[in-house]
Design goal:
With 541 residues, this protein is mostly helical. The protein contains 24 helices and 5 strands. It has a 5-stranded mixed beta sheet, with helices on both faces. Strand 1, helix 23 and strand 2 form a beta-alpha-beta unit. It is globular.
Length: 541
Amino acid sequence: MKYFTKDKHVIISSILISFAVAVFSLILMQNHNSDSNIFYGDSNSRLVQSALLLEKSSYPQIFKELVWLPLPYLIVIPFCLSETLFHSGFAASIPNIILYLVFVFFISKSNLMILRHRLSALALTLIISLNPNLIYLSFSAMSELSALSALAGFFYFLFKQSDLPKASIFLALATLARYEAWLVCIIFVGLIIIYRIKSSLNNYQAIGIILISISGILMWLIFQKIVNGNWFYFLNAEYYSTSWQSKFSRSGDIATLNLPLTLYLFVKSYWEMFGISVILVIIFPIIKRLKYFKNIGSLHHSKENNNLDNSNTTGISTESNEISFKSEIPSIPVRMNTYIKWLFILLIPVFNFLSIFLGLTEMSVYGLNFRYVALAIISINIIFGLEFSKIKDGKKQQKLLLNLFLITALQYISMIIIPTENLATFKEATSGYFSDRLSYTRECSQYLKQFQSDDILMLTGTGYNHRLIKFSGLGISNFRLVSNQESDISGINNKLIVFNKFGTRDATLFLTIPERLLKISANKYSISFENKYYLILKKNS
């Protein structure tokens, strides 16, 4: 305990423990299955598309299919320069683990600022960072960690008025990683305009902060207009946007405009993703009989509470350089202001709920998109911190949080081993995506290995065929991925053509192409390989 006499000791300990657990988990999973870091179909697609951005021959089609925000791709691209890292999937794992540590860094600093007791801050940070679902996402090729690290930085710097420009930079980065951050950005800009956060923030500073905050959104809209001719093409891009996909989910299980089903899916996804943390966030204020709506969100503490002994204080000043979340404008009712503050903290869960209800994401009873709610872990961390900060007795606060850490640690262990399906992201990654296709994918990839100097055309270009690129060990330049939008087959002249028989919606557009191609090519192609999931046509010599 004597070690934790400085804030940096808490931050370093949080990072080292989180890093050790993440790397150990990756090693265990890799030992179990060498492809565990890219189980998701989306992981493969993101990894391949990042590599394709290095290939000029893939332009401009790759950009037209880029409806997912660009920051996760840009982060992975440098690591795709190594064929070894690309084919192992570590081209995505390495930068995502780094981003995971950035996330841990910022939440540990935020917890120190909010709780002002070092052991409490360490316990809360580990409760959040060691969530097995988050750790699994930290070494996959998904976008969650780029968004989480940016949002964690945004909320940390938001706590200090003097650091609002830094907060706006991190918010802009978040808007280039996940669309949830757009709602946070819109509300943040609205609060800047309405409150100007502090009277000391002049008009020029406010305008600068607003412009920086929305810069990511503006760049993405301009990109969509230039490439696709539509500012909002990404909202309903055929085959690739989740809003489009949600329209084709199985009838009867989609939650669109169905309030009871939306509530069920919302609660189930949060429970699967976060476990007991969600329940404790809800019941803790009731158990402790806290005055839940009295000065909620206040990060200001009285001067008397700042005079804690060195073993309990964080050394962080709580003078006017921090946002107090108290109403600075007398004309706005304090109660209404409180509700606005809590709405801001709960924006990500609100976004999750509305997206399920409105059908903006693919969220069904039998195909839950668990990782979709991952960003809400920041809201959970802030709520925990604010509630525990009301406990002025430092020893009592620390004892409660350390007990909470032990409870959640036991649950995290049970999530992994009894049974493994309780690990929500792992469950989603393996369910119907990988396990039943693995042997067939490897068989097809083994066949492709003999064509190292030839050009290979893939007519479905989605996650399942992307796996073939990884398993084959062939360079990305060997492949030409044609999207569903390019259905003209008259100019096809590649030596090999790979078809995905079924499994993705866009693949169904090409089920008749092999037969049509054989007819119009005057015996130019013939079937050279076929198994349950794949069909390969080879150009006749």
